[in-house]
Amino acid sequence: MRHNVFLLTLSCSAVLLLLAALLLWAGTRYNLNPWHNVGDVIDEYKQVPIYFNGGIKHTQGRQRASDGYNFGLKYQCVEFVKRFYYTQYQHRMPDTFGNAHDFFQAQLKSGEYNRQRNMYQFRNDGQFAIQTDDLIVFRPWLLNPFGHVAIVSEVTAQDIEIVQQNPGLFASSRERIRLSLTESNKLADTNVLGWLRLPSNMKKP
């Protein structure tokens, strides 16, 4: 009797784990949000629209500017940041391809020039303060091996606000990240690799 109960419990646990895995898999690839359709405008930053993408791994073709410049896959995080810089600053990245984590070049020191993106790069190490309109880069994680990028929309003495596209099915397009309590200019979120800044936004000494 105990043996049968054990087998039944084990079988039920296996089924529940399988269902959870299937739901997680579907949730990263399809739109399970009943309140938004893929392509809905859910926010804007400086009049640049932010679109809903559904599952974070969902894609539906490539988005380009009228002159052919490649923004990236609809409606991924990369597509928004490149479209923002192109629209607001007429900025074109020399390398128009790559996943989010590819924007951050690990071999560069803080303040060095990132040639692929035509931007200056800073590590999240406390050496330099982050600014509004910087491009922030997050490391890959279990459910997202591509990493994530967003735009810094506000900086205060305690935290920053980022604005983002494709954060997930039910996540907000706006998120706040606290500054470290012990290290000045460093963000407390250890998933932040660093940030990139337009040459025109570099502060003159």
Q: How would you describe what is shown here?
A:
The longest helix has 26 residues, at 2-27. The protein has helices at 2-27, 77-89, and strands at residues 41-45, 48-51, 62-64, 70-73, 112-114, 119-123, 135-138, 148-155, 159-163, 174-178, 192-197. Strand 1 (41-45) and strand 2 form a beta hairpin. The protein is globular and about 45 Å long. The strands form three sheets. Strands 5-6-11-7-8-9-10 form a seven-stranded antiparallel sheet, with helices on one face. A two-stranded antiparallel ribbon has the order 1-2. The protein has one domain (41-201): endopeptidase domain like (from Nostoc punctiforme) (endopeptidase fold (from Nostoc punctiforme)). With 205 residues, the chain is α+β, with helices and mostly antiparallel strands.
